[in-house]
Amino acid sequence: MSSLFPWRRPLEEGWGARVSEIEAVVASGRMPDYASVRAAANQQLGPREQLRIERLAKRIEKVEAKGFTRMELGLLGSRTLSYLREPLGAAGLARGLLVSGHEAPYDHVASFAFSGHNCFERRLDAVLAVLGEASFQGLRPLLDRAAEDEALHEAERLVSAIGAAARSKTGCPVIIATLPPPLQLASADSATPGSSARFRLRINRMLADGAAERRWLIWDQAALAARVGLERWFDPIAYHSAKAPFSVQLCPLAADSVASLLAAMSGRSARALVLDLDNTLWGGVIGDDGITGIRIGQNSAEGEAFVAFQHFLLGLRARGVVLAVCSKNTDAIAREPFRHHPDMVLKEEHIAVFQANWDDKATNIRAVAEALGLGLESLAYVDDNPAERERVRRELPLVSTIEVGEDPSFFIERIARSGLFEHLPLNSDDLARASSYGGRAAVAEIRARVGNYEDYLKSLEMQMTISPFDAVSRPRIVQLINKSNQFNLTTRRYDDEDVSRMQEDRELLGWQVRLDDRFAQHGMIGVVIIRKHGAEWEIDTWLQSCRVLERGVEQGIMNSLFKEASAAGVESIRGRYIPTERNGMVSEFYPRLGFEVVTKSGDGSMNFACGVARYAPHPVFMNISLLR
Amino acid sequence: MSDHESYLSQVADVIRGLFDEYDGPITMETTARDVPQWDSLSHVRLMVLIEQELGVRFSTTEVQGFQNLGSLIDAVVKHKN
């Protein structure tokens, strides 16, 4: 049987021995190496290897495993979701997550939604609700349109109630699974009001609309079922004998799909795709075959496949994924097809960083990461050559090297199935991201040319805009609050409803900060929340995007904050640093900005304060507009 | 080795893989009660693994009705022929 995970590397030689080493480290209570664990889990595991990684995941959960993001996931289903729990642990490891599944008791959907009782009895990061058609009440006699509409209303009420319960009882967002279609009786099923096929279609449409309005998140079970085939996805024997909503054999795949969503929620999706050139973007070798010899375009089946692949890449870019090139080639020759071949879909302007030289791939990929200001873990790599893939995997295990194979017709499928570019509903800032990174790379070049940092900052012609929270920007504000881990002083998470309340709260100052420069519109790059306690203001939240560091952004915001405080007659401003595994970069934030330590707590968190009269504004090299 | 014995040794292999804490004997008479980790949840996993490993598919009645490994092996032989 072919692997459930064709986009992962084939099981490496010596896999068992490597896993034994990790198991031994864990057994001795020590912390296993993050990259090795992720690499061992992220392979084409057969059933037995799968079991072993599931067991490993359970053990690693118990040691404090550095590098991984913990996710406590509530599981709420109308059938049992127990079979997902262990596969979720294994799938999480492959994506840098430690996922613990907590299943609600059987048939607790309605009780969770509508009663005061909280069956999870713990804090969660998300609740996954996999409802069956039977979860939705209401008789739907065939051809009775009104009854169908009513049932759909009821369904929406139930889903909203689950979302509200997740927020109020466990403080987390809810992920609702779409419903796979039933096995149909007739092609006219979906045209027949009251039929199961039609009802599920309408439910899915309702779920999609709600997700677009950010009322909940969706896990598209229906799309996954379609991909593997409904006859494989739905296993009637397991359904009846084990109460399993879908095939137990496919649970590792389902778990991986859910894990990719959890990875996206915690900001761990890949942000850039690094591409090889010869036989990856076109057929043949540009250095040998020349621009007339490479295969791209309508002249051959292979050429058409490469065109389709390039269109797919452009689609990724449109969603904010940064494209980069890394090729063993002479730079001028490598650029030739982009400039002169009429059938090339990708142009030079679409490539944020172009590394064509004779250094090895690992060195060049590192250079790409540096030019983009991204960590290696944010990069995915595509190369048709298995030897190159192998080398990159060995030298840069944190880069996601996708097993695309050698046939260009399968490149799209493998990348799509990898789930590496999973994302939540997009906003306009996401779309602008790819070109913003293009701008960043241009900035890096200027920076090399301009010696003096101050001159460099001036040359950027930065414009910062600080404005209060508003409804239009709320999705991005919520996204930043929930995704920012590194430049985040308190890592307090607030959802859409919280932020909407803050907008109205007069005792609270919510600031969204945007930055443009002459190369790019970076969009919203900071969120600050101030709680006003009379003559003392407290910085509840201060977070910034790591896209624009060392630009004087925090100094600019702080200057504006103290100006506001002074005008309001405030005497001092307090701030707090709560350390996490990932926010070490801001441990010195307050001292650097002129605050003094007030108290330190046992957990390492620190309270700071700065008197308004004492504050000395920091020099900044940008234009700042403050909208009230 | 008869068909029955060779299937039993394959099944025993799967059982030891899944129930890693069990090191007692595995025979035709073995039942779920003999293996502490073998609960109703892991029973479903076990059935799936055996089906994958041996290339068979048990019926709805079979998956819950095996008296012991002997009757499971009988079913495997029946499906194989």
From TrEMBL, chain A:
InterPro entries: FkbH_domain, HAD-like_sf, HAD_sf, HAD_SF_ppase_IIIC, SGNH_hydro_sf. It comes from the Bacteria. GO terms for molecular function: hydrolase activity, acting on ester bonds. This is Methoxymalonyl-ACP biosynthesis protein FkbH. It comes from Sinorhizobium glycinis.
TrEMBL record, chain B:
Transmembrane segments: none annotated. Residues 2-80 form the Carrier domain. Coiled coil: none annotated. InterPro entries: ACP-like_sf, PP-bd_ACP. Pfam families: PP-binding. It comes from the Bacteria. This is Acyl carrier protein. It comes from Sinorhizobium glycinis.
